[in-house]
Amino acid sequence: MSPDVEAPPAQAATPPARAGTVLVVDDAPDTLRMLCDALAGEGYTVLVARDGPQALARLDVVTPDAILLDGVMPGWSGFETCQRIKAHPGGQAIPVIFMTGLSDTTDVVTGFEVGGVDYVVKPIRIEEVLARLNAHVRNARAAREALAQASMQQRPLPLNASPETDRLLQASLTPRETEVLTWLARGKTNRDIAEILGMSHRTVNKHLEHIFEKLGVETRAAAAALATRAIPV
């Protein structure tokens, strides 16, 4: 058995009702084999890539529900690969879970900064990987369905008639900033907003900084209160 993978449990975590497709990116054959067997046993369709370029090539033809990504590989590192995945038109909203022996705080932070949603330290425990994967697949699927439902409406953001409405209009928020503010007014956390809109936590924070500046407020509570009075939520 690979030193990067611990023995699978007798009973794994419950997968989503529609398990979906997972892309596993790792250069270690033993790790790939163990993960592929475990994922297939959970009902997932498994795609495999041995390095970053292969992973990007897979995204040209299919959009997986999640990506399990090794942090240390020949050629592109896992961090560089994740950056390229998030820059790919089909990869922005895909949850990326890092699998790596790099456990220093700086490495963990870097993993999140480049777009990862979770971090599993090797030797990986199959039960833990499946539990985290199942949760992220469910969350990503719910976010996509909510976004698809919103886009189907194809109508401008409704506004109440109020002084706050005038202030909001005068702020000249970008469409993306308006989306972020709308979800903020609906009580979503930064993590929720990142998952719903398919962006990193850092990008959400940047949008909020611009929103605060344009609205002349200093806190998320003040921005949310203003938006709640202007936008029916």
How does this structure look, described?
With 233 residues, this protein is an alpha/beta fold. Helices cover 52% and strands 12% of the residues. It folds into two domains: 5-147, Rossmann fold, CATH 3.40.50.2300; 163-230, Arc Repressor Mutant, subunit A, CATH 1.10.10.10. It contains ten helices and seven strands. It has a five-stranded parallel β-sheet with strand order 3-2-4-5-6, with helices on both faces. It has a two-stranded parallel sheet with strand order 1-7. Strand 5 (96-100), helix 4 and strand 6 (118-121) form a beta-alpha-beta unit. The termini are far apart.
Task: Give the tags.
233 residues, alpha/beta, Rossmann fold, Arc Repressor Mutant, subunit A, two-stranded parallel sheet, 52% helix
Q: Assign the CATH class of the largest domain.
A: Alpha Beta
The helix content is 40-55%
Q: Mean pLDDT, nearest integer?
A: 80
CATH homology group of the largest domain: Response regulator
Question: How much of the polypeptide forms β-strand, as a percent range?
Answer: 5-15%
Report the CATH topology name of the largest domain: Rossmann fold
Major sheet size, sense and barrel closure: 5 strands, parallel
Low-confidence stretches: 152-157
Structural class: alpha/beta
State the order of secondary-structure elements, H for helix, E for strand.
EEHEHEHEHEEHHHHHH
| Oligomeric organization of the protein chains | single chain
The strand count comes to: 7
Q: Tell me the radius of gyration.
A: 20 Å
Largest sheet: spatial strand order: 3-2-4-5-6
What's the architecture of the largest domain, going by CATH? Answer: 3-Layer(aba) Sandwich
